[in-house]
Every structure is written in C-alpha cells, then in structure tokens.
Amino acid sequence: MALVSLHDLMPATMPAVRRTLDLLERHQVHPVTLLVVPGTGWDASGIEELRAFQRAGHVLAGHGWRHQAEHIRGLRHRLHSLFLSRNVAEHLALDADGILALMHRCRDWFEAHDLAPPNLYVPPAWALGPISTAALQHARLFRQVEVFSGVLDTASGRLAKAPVLGYEADAALRVPVLRLWNALGRRRATAAGALRIGIHPGDIDHPLGADLVADLKRYRRFADYSALRDSSAGGSEAARITPSAEHTPEHTP
After folding, report:
1. Among residues of the chain, what percentage have pLDDT more than 70?
2. CA 153 to CA 160: how far, in whole Å?
3. C-alpha span between 208 and 253 (Å, rounded)
4. Model-level pTM greater than 0.85?
5. Which end of the chain is more exposed for a tag (fewer CB within 10 A), N or C?
C-alpha cells in the first residue's frame, strides 16, 4: 500500500502543484493527499480550486500555518534547520501551547472556508516539536498526525511506522543522500506493509524526478492515510506492499 502526498500547497506553488497532479493522473495515482498551508494568502479562486480537488476525490490535509519558522529556537532547531528543514519547521520555534494554537488555527481555517475539515495533520518538515501524544489526544483536532517515522493515530496513541520516500533534490548534495535513503526505504517497505511517497511541487523538475516516476510505476496499490490507520489496527492483508511485476523494491532507477 502506497500513500502519496503532495506537499506545500500555497498560492505561490499552485502552478507546480497542477503540473505534478497532471503527472500523477497520467500514472493513475489516486487518491492523492494534498498538504495545504493555510496562512499564505489564499484568495477566493484558490480556495475554490481546493474545493474542486476535494470533489475530484483528493484528500486535503493541514500542513502548518505559514510553512516558515518565526525564529530559530535552541540548538536542536538550529541543527534541524541547517541539515534538514531550512527555515520551514515552524513547530520547532514553539512550545506545546503554541503548537496546539497553530494546529487549532489550521483546522479552523478549513471550516471557515467551507472545506471538509481534515483528518490528517502534517507538521512542516515532519517536525512535530515539543508536544506529547497525550496533549494531541486531549485536543482531538486531527485523527492522524504524520511525523518522520510514521503516522500517529491520536485516538489510540499508536504510531503506524511506514518508511517515507522523498525526492526534493534541489541541491547537488541531496541527490546521493536521498537516493540512498529511498533505496533503504524500499527495502523496509516490504516488512512494514506500507510506504509513504512524499512529493514536493518542484520535485518533477529535480534530478530525482525519474526516480519518482519509477516509484509510481513500482507501487500500484494507492490509498489515503485512513487505510494506514485501519490496516495497522486490524493487520489487514490489504496493507501488504505489492510492487508491480516489472519492478522490485531493490531496483534503483
């Protein structure tokens, strides 16, 4: 089972988002979970386009508020920003109360604009910050929260682990690092029963664009994130990874 998400939906990225969705449609990838950044200046036409995505069967998820940290908070955040997230991990600049307030604001935005309230929340750069599972369970804002290691079910407190593949090779050094990471993730996916394919709007133009297309051909059983929650609870056979016949998890394009 492959869960495909398209990150960083905001007005500035929508031309690249549309091109990426066209590519996913050509490869019959459906549904796609679309990660929306609410506090980035959406106008009426942009919000109507999000509604159209929902009508087409795509799933909207919350993805922070502005996708930009207001400041760097402490050594851990500084190192995370330097090596992984640049300046987008806005949760890491906040304490637990600030994180919950941001998540509230995100959810309220969907409801205020007549969009179906999302069940899934994905903190930018998968960096949840200093907040406990118990606090997320008590808040009941989102049924699932995706972090780097997997997807947390806030009702049960259970973390469903699933490797994530990424293709944001927008700098030369990232190409070999991501290629190695993805090769390891494909191997781990068979045992995990599921994997996540995380796409950023510019990825199809980056050096790993061909790797992304190969993975879309390799894994042909697509689902939304609720299937991961259900399969982890019941151990369903539907959760098994099934690469297509012409590819194997070990193949690297």
Report:
1. 83
2. 8
3. 9
4. yes
5. C
Mean of pLDDT values over 162-171: 92
More confident call, 212 vs 90: 212
Element (H, E) at 152: strand 150-153
Longest CA–CA separation in the chain, Å: 49
DSSP per-residue letters across 181-246: HHHHHHHHHHHHS-EEEEE-TTGGGSTTHHHHHHHHHHB--EE-HHHHHHHHHHT-GGGS--B-TT
For 189, half-sphere exposure in the C-beta direction (CA atoms, 13 angstrom radius) is 27
Tell me the torsion sign for CA atoms 193, 165, 82, 17. Answer: negative
Check: CB of residue 116 under 8 Å from CB of residue 60.
Answer: yes
User: What residue spans define the domains of the chain?
Assistant: 2-239
DSSP structure string for 49-86: HHHHHHHTT-EEEE--SSSS-SS--HHHHHHHIIIIIT
Whether the predicted pLDDT of 140 surpasses 70: yes
Give domain 2-239's CATH superfamily. Glycoside hydrolase/deacetylase (3.20.20.370)
pLDDT band per the 50, 70, 90 thresholds, residue 78? very low
Determine the Cα–Cα distance for residues 165 and 14; give it in Å rounded to an integer.
22
